[in-house]
Amino acid sequence: MSATATDAVARFRTMVRIRVFEDHAARLYRDGQIPGFVHLSTGQEAVAVGVCHALRRQDVITSTHRGHGHAIAKGADIEAMFAELMGRATGTCGGMGGSMHIADPRLGIFGANGIVGAGIPIAGGAALAMKLKRERRVAVAFFGDGAVATGAFHEATNLAACLSLPLLLVCEDNGYSEFSSTHTQHPVPVAERARAYDLPAQVVDGNDVAAVHDAAMRMVSVVRSTSRPALLVARTLRRRGHYEGDPQRYRSEAFDASFRDPLDQAREALVEGGVPAADVDRWEQEERAFVDAALARASAAPWPEPDRMVSPLAATYPERESPGFAERGPRTRVSRLLKKAMADALDDDPGVFLAGIDVGLGGNVFGLTRDLAAKFPDRVIDTPISESAIIGAAVGAALDGMSPVVELMYLDFLGVCLDQLLNQAAKLRFMTGGAARVGLTVRTQYGVGRSSAAQHSQSLEALLAHIPGLVVVMPSAPEDHYGLLRSAIASPDPVVFIENRLLYEKEAFEPQLDFRVPLGKARIARQGDDVTVVSASQGVWTALQAAERAAGHGISVEVVDLRTISPWDRETVLASLAKTSRIIVYSEAVREFGISAEILAEAAESGFWNLDAPPRRLAGRFSPVPYSPPLERAWLPSADNLFDEILHICRDK
């Protein structure tokens, strides 16, 4: 048998394997052996196999909620996949991910995804890592036609085109976007979208595995050699519902009848090419037996032990103290320390890069990255205004082993890219059973007090702290900006590093290169005996002002600087409370549902018998930040207001 014929047989067998796997999955779900949702790729086997058989093992794919076929075609172990669908300990992800989140980073399977379109920016990030590492690899993003309407598709495609990334976009145009016909969802054919981004595009019969494979081979070769993205649109048919149990009242019998079954086409092509039908039948039976045996073994696998649940964080916090301390040497400013931290990290680790809006030639809106692009021209990258694509690219590059530092210009812009933090960066380690490393840093800033108004002032750390799997840092002390940022960049976990722009010009001592501040460890900014005030970032400076005034009234205030908001240092806060017996939390965010509520709840639960007065909190009003200076000053409690709270809580001393 010729090599070409051997390849055709391998493709046919993989298609059969996928079909049998999906048939079993449908039955298992029907019988209650698979919990949760199941979305099957029955009818789309030719796309998964045609594309993945054109890839190398080192290449990367991202997938969709209908991703079983992609994973199998890329080489995933089907016994482990069955176990994962059934929630067993031996599953691909240890039972942590389930049907919609199959992943195996070791095989370049960077994850199926329950969020439509969300895998496209991640594939773009993997492609960016490949380009930066000068590796002749390719990233492939599989997505359905429905994803073309999402911002993630457009942002990631535009970013890939602007940065010239080795990304192959594969649209499975499968006839239906959830419960709607494709033609009702798009004003132009999907392939026409490529013209807007100057991408080569090809439309192929997605039920003809040979046609898909030929097209994929050509496009992958071009993407690999030119490091330019391309779009492959495979017209196919989703032969089952959007999910198992879908009544499918929206389907068109005439439309469905216009598509042939891809397995029938592949089988006929083999026979017409001279392969004996008996051999084809035998191969099909061998694949069925192979899948049946894998299912039998998976069905006997144990359930995961609850006490062995994977932590969403790879590191243990607080981190241990590191050698090196800031020495009283040359004076500098916080803004320059942040720039120095990034420059030193770029010097130390070739896996570090910076990316964001105007971080290169523009040097950042506050000048914090000025001149870094000249020193590191390949690793300080200007991007379009595409926050979802930027954060998604960081996720994909981190999965590919790099340590990206990306900038979100204002913390207020969190809403436009929250999915890539909430559902991707924060969850991927957990959903892959610990297999994924997602070490990335998102630098951002906020600040109340400069009339920046409601969309450029918000302190949103509580939103982020409520997401398991994120580390949230808010430095206060000038030198800590360097030490904490260096620790964040080196962390194996996703870190959101929130700066306060009002601190950028504070004076600082230039630290030694080995100076690090451990993540998760608070500091005592001022020793005291009568009352504990807990805060972070600019709030610590307000607390220090109030404490100094209180000292003139004979009240000794201990100020605790959290430094890391999540995970926060309970031990240090509770130890301070045990010492002072009174506690106030001061925050520049709105009062309701903020971090102060969490800290005071812990104080009441774990430190109740130490309390000599009701715990207090002081924060912004529950409204957007106003623009007018007098209103803004009234919105945020001042050092005078905090001083009054200190007098109130210590009135019986």
Automatic annotation (TrEMBL):
Which terms under GO biological process does the entry name? Answer: tricarboxylic acid cycle
Keywords per UniProt: Oxidoreductase, Thiamine pyrophosphate, Tricarboxylic acid cycle
Q: Does the keyword Oxidoreductase apply?
A: yes
**Entry GO MF terms:** dihydrolipoyllysine-residue succinyltransferase activity; magnesium ion binding; oxoglutarate dehydrogenase (succinyl-transferring) activity
Q: What is this protein called?
A: dihydrolipoyllysine-residue succinyltransferase
Q: Where does the record place the Transketolase-like pyrimidine-binding domain?
A: 332-506
Gene giving rise to this polypeptide = bkdA_2
InterPro entries annotated for this entry? Answer: DH_E1 (IPR001017), THDP-binding (IPR029061), Transketo_C/PFOR_II (IPR009014), Transketolase-like_Pyr-bd (IPR005475), Transketolase_C (IPR033248)
Q: Which cofactor does it need?
A: thiamine diphosphate
Which SMART domains does the entry mention?
Transket_pyr
Q: Please give the catalytic activity noted in the UniProt record.
A: N(6)-[(R)-lipoyl]-L-lysyl-[protein] + 2-oxoglutarate + H(+) = N(6)-[(R)-S(8)-succinyldihydrolipoyl]-L-lysyl-[protein] + CO2
Superkingdom as given in the UniProt entry? Bacteria
What's its EC? Answer: 2.3.1.61
Q: Which Gene3D superfamilies match?
A: 3.40.50.920, 3.40.50.970
The protein's enzyme class? transferase
